[in-house]
Amino acid sequence: MPLPLDAPVDKRDRPYPPPQRAELSEQGRMRRRALMLVAALGMVATFPAWLQGSVAHAAPAASPAAAPAEFLALSQLVTGRSQLDTEVANRIYAALSQKDPAFPNQASALWQHANAGVEGLQQAALSDPALSKALTNIVSAWYLGEAGGQVVQYKTAIGNQVVEDVVVTPSYCRAAPGYWTAQPPHTVARSI
C-alpha cells in the first residue's frame, strides 16, 4: 500500500545507508592526481592528430614542383594534344618521380629521342625497357588520370574527354536522379 505524499518517512527504513562524503587518504589523492595527469597527457599527446585533421581540411595541399618544360612538350607529342594543363603535368611528373627516382632521367632521355620525332621515341622504347615503361607511364597518366598510384586528374583525363559526349564520366550524374528511366533522344551515329 503506497504512502501518501505528505506522510512522514522514517529514515531508518531505507534499504541503503545515507550517502556520506568519503574522505580520501593522502595516497588516494595522489592516485587521483596521477590519473588526471595521465588523462591530460594522453589528450595533449593526441592533440597534433586533431590539429592535423583540421588543418588538412582548412588549407589546400601545396602544389608540386614544376615539371621541366621538356616534360610538357614530350607529353604533348605522345598524346597528340597541343593543349595540356601544366598543373596536371606537374602532378604527373611529381607522382612518377616519387614512385621511381630514375623517372626524371628517363623522361629527359625520352625528350632527347623525341628530337628525332615519334620514330625516335619508338626506337628508344623498343631498345630500352626502362624507357618503354616510362613512356607507357606518361601516356597512361594523361589518358587514365592515375600516375604512380595517385589520382592526378579525373574528369579531365583524356580518356574521359574523348567519350564525354556519349558516356557519363563514372560517378558523375548528368541529370536528376532517375533520369535514365526516360526514353533517350534519337541519335544518329557519327562517322569516324
From TrEMBL:
Short name of any one Pfam family annotated for the protein: FAD-SLDH
Superkingdom classification of source: Bacteria
Region annotated Disordered, chain positions: 1-28
Protein name: Fructose dehydrogenase small subunit
Source organism (scientific name): Amantichitinum ursilacus
Lineage of the species this protein comes from: Bacteria, Pseudomonadati, Pseudomonadota, Betaproteobacteria, Neisseriales
